[in-house]
Amino acid sequence: MLALRPTTGRSSCLTRVIVKNVNSRRLSAGPGGQQQDVDVVIVGGGPAGLALASALGSSSSVGNKLSVALVEAGDLDKLKHWAPAQGAYSNRVVSLTNVSRDFLKRIGAWDYVEEQRTRPVEDMQVWDGVSGARITFSASEMGLKHPENGMSRLTENFNIQRGLLRHLEKLPQVQLIQRTKVQSISQGPSDEQGWPIVHLDNGTTLRSRLLVGADGFNSPVRTFAGIQSYGWSYDTQAIVATMEHEPRGAFEGPNTTAYQRFLPTGPIAFLPLSPTVSSLVWSIRPHIAKALLSCEPTVLASMINAAFRLPAFSLQYLYDRILEAHNGNLPITPPQIQEEIEFRERTHDINQNSAYTSLIGSTRRGGVAPEEAESVPPFVTSLQPGSPASFPLRYNHADAYIGEGKGARTVLVGDAAHTVHPLAGQGLNLGLADVECLAKCVERSVARGGDVGSYTALLPYAQERYLQNHIMMAAVDKLHKLYTIDLEPVVWARSAGLEVVNELDSLKAALMMSAGAEAPVEPSVAAWSAASNLIQGASAVVELSRAVKSGATNVLFNGLSNLLSQTQQRK
Amino acid sequence: MSSSSSLRILTRVCSRTKPSRRLTRSAEKRPLHLSASHRTAATAVHGHGATVNADEISHFSRLSAEWWDEQGEFAFLHRMNPVRVQFIQEKLAEIASDESESGAIVPPHSVLQGLDVLDVGCGGGLLSETLARLGANTTGIDASEANIGIASLHASADPSLRASGNLGYLHTTTDDLLTASSSTSSSPPKQYDVVASLEVLEHVDNPSHFLDTCCKLVKPGGHLFLSTIARTPLAYGLTILMAEHVLRKVSVGTHTYSKFVNPEELLDFFKRYPKGSPGDYQKWISSDATTYIPRHQAEIRGLIYNPFSASWSLGPRNSLAAAQCNYLMWVRKPKEGEV
């Protein structure tokens, strides 16, 4: 419909011809509903969506020029007033890089994040569960600008979301539409340039100049935009839980070390939140995850301790025991699992006083810690009630970040654009980097009088983010695949690889980034490429080792020497 | 680029509908004509006794899709637009800051606020819309009636442009803006703080006359922004050979090499403009400035295209070496009393 009213009675030259008189702003659209014109509609109130709303709302150049609305199906008020009991932590934790934290500081949201509920990671220990090869990182050795902030900061997702919501409270120009679902999204009439129209279940429709999909893995915005995505499911579940443990002893330093052990079933990570509370992310095959979660929490706690300590094949034995009991509908009991673990430890000659014993209650409290106590995380004594849970892991990357044609004026950020394996803790950080870049594009476009929904305005966002995300996602994916294989030659290459890794600056930079450090030398992408190449080399070995079975031993040998010579050259 | 396509579109419109309208009608009728066309269009849609059919609307819409298809024929122009606006903003801000009595720095993002701006050869309104969003009272004019229809239609879909009401389009020419007012009333023609005519000069038949009319529409102390293409082998290779014939990004025949204008020629023009003996008028660029371009009188900036990022950037100031292909020029009309 033409948005023009006849300019009656105006015949003088140079009258303002269009624009003023509008009769087609159809305020009523649909039964009882209202149509509202909004410049930026963000679908999804997760960390990425909220951060984008905060960034746009707090931007001096955008804040008063664009109208911004965020639609979320859930209850954001509840999140805003989230008040956990002293010492209680939510089970979803994020490792926030310094880059991400700086971004939150710049937009003014970090002031509202409860810093007491965050924990700097000062050291990291990463080791291969099969070969035992280990690398250690320390923030103090990284040449960071502020080593006291650690290489990253662990905190609960809720803490970030609540901080962003409190920040948004100070930005009334951002409209929060909560407890409201997006019913459908349609393309507007062509004479309105086909701006996307978001139909809400409260009857309102939002005609959006720019529609941002921050709506997660099953993004309705992505579907509307007709953007395909490519990916797979890892046949892995991540078990999360909030773990309680004894404080570190006097000579062991504070609880600021993150641990990650790569097991053939997937990596298990121990992420410190306070001196006596840490968070678990344990990637494991779905059937084992199910069996573990159906046991008593004490069993899970014992298994967590064992998973950081026992040799991989003993763990496999324990999983088999648990599965057997689970399938027989007689879940294993705490005394039974204790007995099994004790038996495995005796078989492995693990001393009852060593750091590697995983029996709750059998350790000495206080005094001098056993040797190598810092090589493994503190003992888990219990799990916070209700905290154990699990979710499936996937790899997924949208084919494009900007909609075109019928899906024009749409853009994807965060999990709607990409879902990544959590082993490197990069998911939320990638999302925040998207948001920062998109907010900058919007600011730049506004500063030049551009149309923020236009392809021209959004193109730099896609150009900057797509490749970076892809490289990092590919590297993380390869890491996962490399370490979930326990074929002998691969393990050998792997341990060799890891020890070489320790020597290589570029790779160390890459792995530190995975841990969430700010890159010591800036070109992050280069570091990731280097890492992914090395890992690719190792993956080639995986392929080759499959060929071993068909007798191609000399090929394998060549493959391994290639890998090593490659890594040597990089050095 | 823009105006040629406007010509193309115009030709298409003419062959489809009616013979080309001579652009010599009196100026008062022209805005009327525009509103009339929209009135009929609107009434046709609303069904109150139509004179013009929905055909015309759909025709406008179809052309509009072409002008505003950011990955189509005008992709280069869309990408160029932010950089052109940047040049305008930064130059205006520089001069405004230099001349602000309080010595305060005028930020580029607000410098256009409230200025009267004329966009000559507005085409589909790419530049006009951005200038209006930045707060300028913008009038876009184009010799092609079809373009004006497209530009109006596109702007009318944008609620914030509708609300601010500072954007208007006229189907007219600079000649007509000058002659109409002088023939009908004693009042002099309206002059503008800023006259911009981007990617137009290489499409007009008599560039010096065209420049003269643009200059007359600038207020004393006001600004004229031009952009065009230099007549160099490089420009031939990029804008005609590559863009039109090899890559086929732009329709064949969009550009005519002989119509390209070199930056030196423009500088020369303004060193001699306005005509008359040196004592009569202050020339727009001091004629004795032979080795440099005075910063408060004019500036040339090359526009450099990076095919890998599909983006344009500004070359160094007054570097004619960087202005071997597309370039922008700013020149300022001397204030009254400056001799």
UniProtKB/TrEMBL annotation, chain A:
First-listed, main subcellular location of the protein, grouped into a coarse class: mitochondrion
Family recorded in the similarity comment: Belongs to the UbiH/COQ6 family.
Domain FAD-binding: 37-286, 406-440
Compartments (UniProt record): Mitochondrion inner membrane
Role noted for this protein: FAD-dependent monooxygenase required for two non-consecutive steps during ubiquinone biosynthesis. Required for the C5-ring hydroxylation during ubiquinone biosynthesis by catalyzing the hydroxylation of 4-hydroxy-3-(all-trans-polyprenyl)benzoic acid to 3,4-dihydroxy-5-(all-trans-polyprenyl)benzoic acid. Also acts downstream of coq4, for the C1-hydroxylation during ubiquinone biosynthesis by catalyzing the hydroxylation of 2-methoxy-6-(all-trans-polyprenyl)phenol to 2-methoxy-6-(all-trans-polyprenyl)benzene-1,4-diol.
Source organism superkingdom: Eukaryota
Protein name, per record: Ubiquinone biosynthesis monooxygenase COQ6, mitochondrial
Cofactor: FAD
Pathway: Cofactor biosynthesis; ubiquinone biosynthesis
GO MF term (any one): 4-hydroxy-3-all-trans-polyprenylbenzoate oxygenase activity
Gene3D superfamilies attached to this UniProt entry: FAD/NAD(P)-binding domain
Keywords: FAD, Flavoprotein, Membrane, Mitochondrion, Mitochondrion inner membrane, Monooxygenase, Oxidoreductase, Ubiquinone biosynthesis
Provenance organism: Coprinopsis marcescibilis (Agaric fungus)
Entry membrane topology: Peripheral membrane protein
Assigned GO CC terms: extrinsic component of mitochondrial inner membrane
Catalyses which reaction(s): a 2-methoxy-6-(all-trans-polyprenyl)phenol + 2 reduced [2Fe-2S]-[ferredoxin] + O2 + 2 H(+) = a 2-methoxy-6-(all-trans-polyprenyl)benzene-1,4-diol + 2 oxidized [2Fe-2S]-[ferredoxin] + H2O; a 4-hydroxy-3-(all-trans-polyprenyl)benzoate + 2 reduced [2Fe-2S]-[ferredoxin] + O2 + 2 H(+) = a 3,4-dihydroxy-5-(all-trans-polyprenyl)benzoate + 2 oxidized [2Fe-2S]-[ferredoxin] + H2O
Designated gene of the protein: COQ6
EC identifiers of the protein: 1.14.15.45, 1.14.15.46
Subunit structure of this chain's protein: Component of a multi-subunit COQ enzyme complex, composed of at least COQ3, COQ4, COQ5, COQ6, COQ7 and COQ9.
HAMAP family: COQ6_monooxygenase (MF_03193)
From TrEMBL, chain B:
UniProt key word 4Fe-4S: no
Top-tier EC class: transferase
Pathway: Cofactor biosynthesis; ubiquinone biosynthesis
Transmembrane segments: none
Membrane topology, record value: Peripheral membrane protein
Signal peptide range in chain numbering: none
Binding residues annotated for S-adenosyl-L-methionine, in chain numbering: R84, G121, D142, L198
Family: Belongs to the class I-like SAM-binding methyltransferase superfamily. UbiG/COQ3 family.
The protein's role, per its UniProt record: O-methyltransferase required for two non-consecutive steps during ubiquinone biosynthesis. Catalyzes the 2 O-methylation of 3,4-dihydroxy-5-(all-trans-polyprenyl)benzoic acid into 4-hydroxy-3-methoxy-5-(all-trans-polyprenyl)benzoic acid. Also catalyzes the last step of ubiquinone biosynthesis by mediating methylation of 3-demethylubiquinone into ubiquinone. Also able to mediate the methylation of 3-demethylubiquinol into ubiquinol.
Protein name, as recorded: Ubiquinone biosynthesis O-methyltransferase, mitochondrial
Gene that encodes it: COQ3
